[in-house]
Amino acid sequence: MSRPRDMLLRGAVLSPHAIDRVESYEDGFVRIDDDGRVASIGDWHDAPNDAGPIVHVGDALILPAFVDAHVHLPQIDVRARYGLPLMAWLEQHVFPAEAAFADPEHAERVAERFFHALAANGIGTAGVFATVHLEATHKAFEVAANSGLRIVMGKVLMDVNAPPDLIEPADRGIAASLELAERWEGAAGGRLHTAITPRFVPTSSAELLSHAGRAASQAGLRVQTHLAEQPEEVEIVSRLFPDSTDYLAVYDERGLVGERSVFAHAIHCTDDAFARLASSGSAIACCPTSNAFLGSGSFPLQHAKRADVTIGIGSDVGAGPLFSPLDVLRHFAYLDHIEPCELLYRGTLAGAEALSVDHQTGRLAVDKAADLVVLEPPADASGDPLQRFVQCVFRNPETRVVATLVEGRVVFGRLPT
Ligand code: GUN
Ligand code: ZN
Q: Measured from the CB, is residue 233 less than 6 Å from ligand 1?
């Protein structure tokens, strides 16, 4: 990982402002300062002439690095295990893979490959589930720090209904989560964040969820979990918590629903639940490739949008088979008619909003971190920069990530010389 340096990137530039607004320059520039921040952005005619070296990216696009709002580190090697519904898939494939993280050296080796895969796919920021293991999660944070990526991560919490080597008493899990927060929250110059990470309701006791909610609010930490992914899971939750009106209420009654909470999937939710998510300031990580792969159902995008919930995208590796946000965005687009502008927004700024890191990343704007991806579209791509980005999404295999930068440092690939 190189040091950030003052440089002037020249090429076609795209930066989302909102769901329906994008800043676009056919021949544009992004000036990066010595601290790895965006110093200015605009049309090449207005580029400063006293800046550092000029790096011309040719036909490639310059856009904010992608944000994967929901992904599982230990599941990189259990991708594409097809044919089972969620609960059986977890038992048969996921839990054995996660149990191997009792060995911190295994965790370190997998984490190296995992963070490399994120960067190689143009991802600058991710919301990551580790495993229940404290030492393995420390290792994962060490690797994340060295990777140069911006990472929100948590140790998974489970205290019931999982194999004995993957559960622990609620107070021990919370104490370990707080130890991780003490060490890693805001570390690596603010690139790392910790999240309280109860896996989902079926593997949580009421005590664990209450404890988790208290810890998150007292320590001001982010929360990430799963919500209403499959009907069978929703049914289990209603049996475990018969006094709660719905799945979301189980979390809400225990202080886990708020401005810094991200809920993965949220497929089988009522309009009322979407309205409560929106009014609480919570976000959804929509995982369309995972939803298709596990047969979870189709995310009711129009309903969630009507409620005005923040919606980022997640690969949900390993239920999602591929890391590429372009692949996830293509499946997202097939949910409904999506404007090109929205596709760019969902893959970048919306994910940053979902993970509460939009003060740092998600768009190319003065004083934001220079987190960007240089993306080479298919050779015959045409149209304006946004149209060429859309062709990257729908022709993903013909698209190449040239380089991924976080805070002005190259974390994957190489910039042209
Ligand atoms: N629900 C609880 N745990 C998981 C997981 O690891 N993957 C997915 N897709 N859903 C979950
Ligand atoms: Zn998940």
A: no
